[in-house]
Amino acid sequence: MLKVLESYEIGSAIIGNLKQSKTKCVLVSGYIKPWGHLKEALGSAIKRGVDTAIYVREPEEKDSQKLKEIGQELQELNVALFTVQNLHAKIYLFDDKKVMVGSMNLYDYSQANSIDFQIEVDDSETISAVNKFINENVIPKAKLINRKTSFVKKLAGTVANKVVTTVLNSVFSQPAYCIRCRKEIPDDINKPLCDNCYGSWAKFKNQEFKEKYCLGCGKEYKTTYAKPYCPSCYKEWNR
After folding, report:
1. In this predicted model, what pLDDT tens digit does every residue of 216-234 receive, in sequence order?
2. 35 with 123, same domain?
3. What value does the mean pLDDT take over residues 137-154?
4. Residue 163: what pLDDT?
5. Is the same domain home to 142 and 34?
6. In this structure, how many other beta carbons lie within 10 angstroms of the beta carbon of residue 170?
7. What integer pLDDT is reported at residue 154 of this predicted model?
8. DSSP secondary structure of 189-217
9. What is the CATH number of the domain that holds 116?
10. What is the C-alpha to C-alpha distance for residues 239 and 209, in angstroms, rounded to an integer?
């Protein structure tokens, strides 16, 4: 069945489908700024055990911090947020049983003010084609910008496509922060310093020397080479 949705219906339809989902939600949007009801629906889905991930367009440098902040909000809900260069598609897939394709972004202004158009389809052939598009054109180019989530771990272990699985596994080495200078580095608890700072540290190799930042979030915190995470990031890493 094909259903045509006008601007005023789209936001409610996305939320309604999120609330009815039982296993998986994949949301692809050019831009994101989630409104209150959308965040509530995402949180509710996670609490029901629905694996949820969002893919958005890689931002320009001036907007990167805003997106990181949104990523942190979604991390608290255990929703994985990925960026994809040049992404423009708007696809909302629910349980592999229903898909919405159209023009509306997951952006609070869009759902309240823009003139948008979306179609909702539940036939298996269309959903299979949409899944194929996502697996070939979105996931292989995706970069995880918030912390590890159970969804990413589970998806990396279950996706049959070897290329997709490799890419999903690689997101576990996303940028973190040098605990001495805060330079972005891969998130590796065994390598919490950038190359330059490691050279200085290696002269003495004191694993209890007090450093300045958390490896995970980059916030100021008295870490050490042996314990490079703040308590909240360590809890997330150890989950």
Report:
1. 889 999 999 999 999 888 8
2. yes
3. 72
4. 46
5. yes
6. 13
7. 53
8. TT--S-HHHHHHHTTT--TT---SB-TTT
9. 3.30.870.10
10. 26
- Per the DSSP assignment, residues forming a β-bridge with 55 are 28, 82
Give dist(CA 212, CA 113) in Å, integer.
44
Q: Say what the pLDDT of residue 172 is.
A: 45
Token pair 């899944």: residue: 131
Which of the 8 DSSP states describes residue 140?
G
Number of domains in the chain: 2
Indicate the helix (H) or strand (E) that contains 57: strand 51-57
Tally of residues, the chain: 239
pLDDT digits (tens, 9 = 90+) for 155-179: 544 444 444 444 444 444 456 899 9
| Residue 55 · residue 71 · CB < 8 Å | no
Is there a contact between 83 and 59 (Cβ–Cβ < 8 Å)? yes
Assigned domain for 23 exists: yes
Same domain, 112 and 189: no
pLDDT score recorded for residue 109: 83
Give a yes or no: residue 26 inside a domain: yes
Domain ends where: 95, 130, 147? 147
Specify whether 184 is located in the same domain as 133.
no
